[in-house]
Amino acid sequence: MTALCRLALLLTLALTLALPARAQAQAQDRATLVSDRLEITGDNQLVASGAVEIFYQGNRLRAARLVYDKASDRLQIEGPIILTDAGGNTTLFASAADLSADMTEGILTSARLVLNQQLQIAANRAMRIGGRYTELDQVVASSCKICENSPVPLWEIRAARVVHDQEARQLYFDQAQFRVAGLPIFYIPRLRMPDPTLDRTTGFLMPVVRTTSDLGFGLKLPYFVALGEDKDLTVTPYLTARHSRTLELRYRQAFRTGKIEVTGALTRDRLLPGEDRGFIFANGEFDLPDDFKLTFRLQAASDNAYLLDYGYSDTDMLDSRVEISRTRRNGFFSARVVSFQSLRDDEDNNTLPSLITDVTFHRRFSLWTLGGEGGFRLQTHSHLRTSNNPLDGPDPDDIADGRDVSRISARIDWRRSFILAGGIEATILGEASADAYTIGQDGIYGGDHARSHAAAGVELRWPWVKHVAETGATHVIEPVVQLIWAGQNGARIPNEDSALVEFDEGNIWSLDRFPGADAVEEGKRANIGVSWTRYDPAGWSLGMTVGRVVRDRDRDQFGVASGLNTGQSDWLAALTVDWQNGFAATGRVILDDDFALTKGELRLALNREKVALSTSAIWAVADPQENRPDPTREFAFDARWQATPALMAKMSGRYDFQTDRGTLAGMGVEYRNDCVLVDFSVSRRFTSSTSVTPTTSFGLSVDLIGFGSGKTAGPSRRCYN
Questions:
Q1: How far, in Å, are 671, 673, 676, 702, 720 from residue 714 at the CA level?
Q2: pLDDT tens, residue by residue, 243-292
Q3: Which one-letter DSSP state was computed for residue 9?
């Protein structure tokens, strides 16, 4: 029995193939040996045969027959041999093996190494060296499925020798040849690649091909540098056929309480000869004590066209900010500093607010004596322009080029609801606010200004509910009437933050429909309307809202496109549909008394397993007050179709009906199977300006799944007899 126990202990050390250099430290750990037959021949050999299995610390070794020779202290194993590590990430197959008792040295014949259930490395033989390295000779490596009638994989790497460093989780190829469908593509004398179990390692990433009509054919070759477990750097040279030289950088770092990411690029090209072009984007977020959060964002570009020329972003307004905030159940606090950079050719950054600061404190509370719920908000705001001109320049925005504004505002609000006879819900609501402004460098509005404002109202809701027994559907109809009284004041305060006003089902029952603080809605008015919602037991719902605003008189506060610019507003009609099968639709129109369309928008969304579609259409009349001298009539869509389990088609576009031309169009195809991901895209930008020209772009990227690409495998290809 002593020899038998010693043999069982030595056999368990076989699994140090997956956990090397720990055999002595774990020698005291127990293992389990299971077989159909176990015998001792003489004094030196123990033979286990028939479904031999060894379990040790979650690792598993299976073989047909095993012989331990005490004199030589070696193991003779007959296959098929399957050795799996504790995590299931590394599996070694072989037909036979001659190994030392602790499995740290030896030879395996007809070996096949499978890493992370993706990459397979087949070899004539494999050698275990030092319990850490596995050396394989005459190797074929691939993550593609191999069919019996077609033994050639889609892609493969053939090499004279491969060394797998199990601790570093690296693969070293000697005399490697990359083949596609059996055809040699290129030869590499020495190649190092991470095995699929490694998430991060220093080395080259897959190249990306990008071709545009402005820059010509271009190649990006990213190089990833793992600076530690918490940070990394990616350096990407980008060279094009038309002598554009770009260096892209991305730095990421994770902290115990947050993270940061910085991306940027520096370019020299012939589009702007002799000029250095580039951009930098940075963002981060951190958790601070007492539930506070710190977030920051930095965005800057060298010129208006750079981001579009190189495909980094299609934004036309860069937004940099730093903010400290805290959100709790009954309170909110925010302090932020914001800076904008416009990339529009018709805007001058000197006349735009270059530095904005905001501090907001908002608190909700209960009023024990009055009942209901109250709120208090205190806010400060300031913005500065770099221009010193106190008058409006050549731009027709009616804003002094150098206007600087500082404001402090306080607002208190309260509302309480009651249930009356017949199920009518009555609500009393009101709010009062006070503002103090200091305006500088403005020849018209300059000086100190103060304003106070109050509004109060009564709201009546009468919900009717009906359940239809035959269909199981529930209908809810709710007429709503609000009677509002609001004061008026003669303060001369320019309106900069409330020029764009939306009239929709979300604010039809509001005391104030202006989005900012510079303007307040004045005068007596009634908000009237009715909503209807149908809830179907199948899981879908349909909702509709119709309403309008009736005022005592027109106070000329709103623009034409808002639908609120007359004593009686235009009619608002909104429709929402939501199906459980992934379809949703939202439509909204604003119609005058003659049913002429003032503004309308429609959004459709379909999100199914094989098809996804998102569309939006908008129509709005011209409104100089909203800085829109021409009508807006646009349609945009974004679609995805999973044609087969492996093939996905994508398409997007935007069309301007006012100018009768497309502004953006794009399409792409993505093919993903068990071992490769190919993404091809083409896009066309039709818009033009003094700094931007119409451009066509092509993109191509190829990822070999199984070699640390980070991409998940798609469906396996089918084998045909």
A1: 9, 4, 8, 14, 19
A2: 899 999 999 999 999 999 999 999 999 999 989 999 999 999 999 999 99
A3: H
- What digits encode the pLDDT tens for the residues 483-513? 999 998 767 899 999 989 999 998 999 999 9
Place of tokens 């024990």: 368
Q: Is 153 exposed, middle or buried (0-12, 13-18, 19+ CB in 10 A)?
A: buried
**Which class would CATH give 2-197?**
mainly beta
Residue holding tokens 């505002």? 409
| Percent of the chain topping pLDDT 90 | 58
CB neighbour list of residue 696: distance below 8 Å, 6 or more residues apart: 212, 213, 682, 683, 684, 685
Tokens (6 digits) for 228? 């530690």
Sign for the pseudo-dihedral over CA of 481, 487, 492, 496: negative
Distances (CA, A) of 302 to 2, 13, 351, 554: 79, 62, 18, 47
Numbered ranges of CATH 2.60.450.10 in the chain: 2-197
Instruction: Please check the confidence at residue 62 and state whether its pLDDT lies above 50.
Output: yes
Q: Which amino acid is at 407?
A: R
In the numeric block, the tokens 């399409």 are attached to 667
For the chain, the helix, strand and coil percentages under 3-state DSSP, each to the nearest 5: 5, 55, 40
- Are 641 and 648 in contact, with CB atoms under 8 Å apart? yes
Mean pLDDT of the chain: 88
Q: Give the E-state strand segments of 181-226 in sequence order.
A: 183-194, 203-204, 208-212, 216-220, 223-226
Residue pair 483/522 in contact by the 8 Å Cβ criterion: no
Phi, psi of 140 (to 5 degrees): -125, 120
**Whole-number pLDDT of residue 709:** 60
Please identify which residue in the block is written with the tokens 């029995």: 1
Task: Check if the beta carbon of residue 74 is closer than 8 Å to that of residue 101.
Answer: yes
Report yes or no: 93 and 123 within 8 Å, Cβ to Cβ.
no
User: Which range in 6-10, 33-37, 237-241 is most confidently predicted, on average pLDDT?
Assistant: 237-241
Residue 512 has a CB neighbour count (10 Å cut-off) of 19
Residues 6+ apart with CB under 8 A from 24: none
